[in-house]
Each structure stands twice: as structure tokens, then as C-alpha cells.
Recover the amino acids of this structure.
């Protein structure tokens, strides 16, 4: 399949680094603004990356968030090495959470993250190997369809 | 409602954005959980929160929230202020509890940025 998808940036996320939670999301937002992506799309991508970042910090040892920009869409790929998700359907339910106090003190862990990512994505895929890690892909189309 | 009026109604202190008190807001969202802010809040609103860590500022930035009001007299760290300045988001601070803040601002005509959670099906964070 020919790909016009350009890697715009790759961002490293360290597990348990609560202090910097949201930094990658802010950086990605800035990068997309510079590219002239529509604001409504940027907001959706910013929320998706914020949630993905918090998930890596909260549950994984380390991970990366890759940002791809193509003519009609922005794609976010979050890949981590860590405990993974044993039951993806359950994890996607709003309100389901395995967060500990350190996550809740940061203002997260309400069990909204993955559901929120799915809600704001036009294409959403989540796969996980328990004990190894998680791979999340989210596509936001510029025309919102 | 201008930030200047909000400051006066709430006996609030301006922590960041003394030069932006003419900024006008017409909607608000109140929560301590940033998960809920990311799920339900809309762009352009005032964020009323008791969470005073840097994640509140970064959450506001992700959603293009116009300004943050920290309630219940929560202490604000230097890091919080530094990030708010960097991201150009005004911050007000009051000792009033969230209920009191919301009640006073609602009386002045400010409304919620959404009325109920069912509206979350909408993909656009307008």
C-alpha cells in the first residue's frame, strides 16, 4: 500500500513520570498548530495524546507516541512496554479503572481514558499482549468523517 | 463575563494574566478530575477546579480552555504558574469552595459548557 503518511514526530514517555504528564500532548499540539491543521482536529488529537500519555505513565514501563500527518488525517500511535491489558473490552468501559492513588492524585484514573480516546478517534485500534505491552492507533480525519 | 468581573465576584486573586482581565468567557466547567475535563469540557470555557497541579494547566491547553479558576484556596506551585505563563492561560485563585463559585457565576449569567453528559457522543470539542 503506498503511504503518504509522514512521521511528524516521535515522543518518548517514561513510566511513572507523573510530573511531566501532559508535556507530550502540549508538544504535539504546538507541532500541529505550526502545520496549520484545523483547530478542532488539533483539540481532538491533543486529548487523545494526553490520555495515551497518561496511560503509558500510569501503567507501562516506557513507551513512545508517534505522530503522523498525511493529507487527510492525523494518526497517533502509542506503543508501550509494560503490563499490557488483559481484557480490552473491559478496559474500554467508561468508569472501569485499575488506577492507584498516585494516578488519582494527578487528576486521572477515572476510567474515562480509553473510552475518551475511542470517542474522539475516527479510526481506533487497540491491541495488547499481557505482560509485554500495548499498541494503540488512533486516526483523526481532517474532514471529521 | 470578563475575568475582571469574575475576580471581583469571587474575591479572587489573579495569579497569571493580570494583563488579560478583559478576556470574556460565557461558559464554564467545574471538576477536580482531569479525566472528566478531557471527556466533557469544551473549548473556550472557564475551568473551575480544585486540582492545582501542572496537569490542570496542560489539560486546559489541550482543550483550548480560556482560563483556570483554582478554588478552595488550594496552593499553587511555581511549576503550575510557570506552565500557565508559558502556555498563556490566565489563572485566578479563590478561597471559595466550588459550589459557592459555581453558584455566584451562574447567577451572573455564566452557563455550563454542556448541560449533561449525554452530549459526549459528539466528536467535536467545539
Amino acid at each position: 500500500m503506498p503511504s503518504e503518511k509522514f512521521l511528524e514526530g516521535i515522543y518518548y514517555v517514561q513510566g511513572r513520570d507523573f510530573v511531566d504528564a501532559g508535556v507530550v500532548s502540549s508538544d504535539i499540539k504546538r507541532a500541529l498548530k505550526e502545520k496549520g491543521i484545523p483547530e478542532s482536529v488539533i483539540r481532538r488529537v491533543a486529548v487523545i495524546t494526553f490520555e495515551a500519555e497518561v496511560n503509558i505513565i500510569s501503567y507501562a514501563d516506557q513507551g513512545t507516541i508517534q505522530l503522523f500527518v498525511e493529507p487527510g488525517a492525523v494518526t497517533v500511535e502509542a506503543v508501550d512496554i509494560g503490563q499490557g491489558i488483559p481484557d480490552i473490552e473491559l478496559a474500554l468501559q467508561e468508569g472501569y479503572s485499575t488506577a492507584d492513588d498516585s494516578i488519582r492524585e494527578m487528576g486521572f484514573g477515572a476510567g474515562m481514558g480509553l473510552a475518551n480516546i475511542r470517542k474522539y478517534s475516527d479510526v481506533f485500534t487497540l491491541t495488547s499482549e499481557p505482560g509485554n505491552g500495548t499498541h494503540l492507533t488512533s486516526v483523526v480525519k481532517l474532514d471529521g468523517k | 463575563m470578563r475575568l475582571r468581573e469574575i475576580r471581583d465576584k469571587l474575591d479572587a486573586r489573579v495569579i497569571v494574566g493580570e494583563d488579560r482581565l478583559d478576556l470574556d468567557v460565557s461558559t464554564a466547567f467545574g471538576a477536580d478530575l482531569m479525566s472528566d475535563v478531557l471527556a466533557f469540557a469544551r473549548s473556550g470555557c472557564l475551568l473551575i477546579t480544585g486540582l492545582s497541579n501542572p496537569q490542570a494547566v496542560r489539560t486546559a491547553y489541550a482543550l483550548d480552555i480560556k482560563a483556570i479558576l483554582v478554588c478552595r484556596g488550594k496552593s499553587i506551585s511555581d511549576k503550575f504558574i510557570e506552565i500557565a505563563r508559558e502556555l498563556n492561560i490566565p489563572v485566578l485563585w479563590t478561597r471559595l469552595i466550588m459550589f459557592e463559585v459555581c453558584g455566584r457565576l451562574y447567577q451572573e449569567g455564566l452557563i455550563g459548557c454542556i448541560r449533561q453528559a449525554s452530549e459526549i457522543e459528539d466528536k467535536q470539542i467545539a
Remarks:
- Strands of chain B lie at 13-16, 27-30, 46-49, 67-70, 91-93, 111-112.
- The two ends of chain B are 19 Å apart (CA to CA).
- Residues 98-107 of chain B form the longest helix (10 residues).
